[in-house]
Amino acid sequence: MNSIGVETGNEMLEVFREYRDNPDLWVMIITAARDKSFCSGMYVTEAAQKTAEKGKTEGIPYTWTVLTDIQDTEDTKEGFRSFVEKRKPKFTGE
């Protein structure tokens, strides 16, 4: 598994919102249901640092903003296209 589908993404978003809105929670541990799973997509350490620096109320929305910005780049689109076409990506930095 190397992707998060719409249904799973929506479920995760609901859980993240519940976490964000609960002032008693400061740690969230995400695990996989399968023995072997991998899903890339963000710099977890940086996201955790920003959340700690900004506090949960500002840090979590910041992380989602970064993720949205990353997903909207031409290089991200090229990465997906090259994967589907089974070729090496040609990144431009855009």
Write the layout of secondary structure elements.
Blueprint: H1 6-21, H2 44-54, H3 56-71, H4 74-84
Helix pairs in contact: 2-3
Written account of the structure:
By secondary structure, the chain is mainly alpha-helical. It has one domain (6-84). The protein has helices at 6-21, 44-54, 56-71, 74-84. The mean pLDDT is 75.
How many helical stretches? 4
Distance between the termini: 27 Å
Query: Total number of β-strand segments?
Result: 0
Low-pLDDT residue spans? none
What is the H/E order?
HHHH
Helix content class: 55-70%
Largest beta-sheet details:
none
Average predicted confidence as pLDDT: 75
Domain module tally: 1
State the main characteristics.
mainly alpha; globular; 94 residues; 4 helices
Please summarize what this structure is.
This protein has four helices and no strands. The chain is mainly alpha-helical and 94 residues long.
